[in-house]
Amino acid sequence: MSRKAVKRKGVKPVKAKVALTADEVVKEISPVISQPLKRCDWITPFSDPMYKSFHDEEWGVPVHDDRKLFELLVFSQALAELSWPAILNRRDIFRKLFDNFDPSSIAQFTEKKMLSLKVDGNLLLSEPKLRAVVENAKQALKVQQEFGSFSNYSWGFLHHKPSRNGFRYARQVPVKTPKAEAMSKDMMQRGFRCVGPTVVYSFMQVAGIVNDHLVTCFRYQECNTNVKKDIKPKIEEIESLAKDVENTCLSR
User: Fold this and answer.
1) Residue range 85-127, pLDDT digits in tens
2) pTM, to two decimals
3) Separation CA 185–CA 183 (nearest Å)
4) SS3 for 234?
5) Strand pairing partners for 119?
6) What's residue 120's pLDDT?
7) CA gyration radius for the chain?
8) Could you give the CA distance from residue 134 to residue 114 in angstroms, rounded to a whole number?
């Protein structure tokens, strides 16, 4: 057999695969679907990229960490003076000046410390809002002692299970609800400041206590999936806490 008749057997080089973006995954699954992912109506092609990422990755995702919840409460209060894009672009500054939103640290802020929270020579928030943050940190500590965590207190108003509203249009999304009014009333009675029903409902939305992504938004179902994954360990945690309380009562 001649050398020409002999075919060399070799291994063809394989190109390394690059991770696909969310939009590319949609195209890969169904070539017919070529349009970008559908988001809530308030996110437009001209929205701040940081705001868009916040919508895609954080807004409406259930939060149970106390520091994170306190941070989101402060941001919800700040919405009276700043927009979400403005807050997010200053997020690192907020975290630095507010000691990563540690209530035990913020509760110790003196008058001098509070009035030093400035950006480019101006207060980060208005003086009443800053005073509210410090006072709310003190009340959050009291809530932690009474309920075990700020998370247990906050989620308790919806029986520790997120509410899914299923709105199709942005105009249907409320600015407050009876649950938000109940939580607002209770917080004010406890000494929290700047926590009207509108502020509290914004807090509920961003913390995932309610899912107000529009049903046409790709994040609506994703946040519901996060809830299913997250709710079992939380229920077990609550049941364990209830047993501890029961055992404590029986031992007395």
Assistant:
1) 999 999 999 999 999 999 999 999 999 999 999 998 999 999 9
2) 0.76
3) 5
4) helix
5) 122
6) 87
7) 24
8) 8
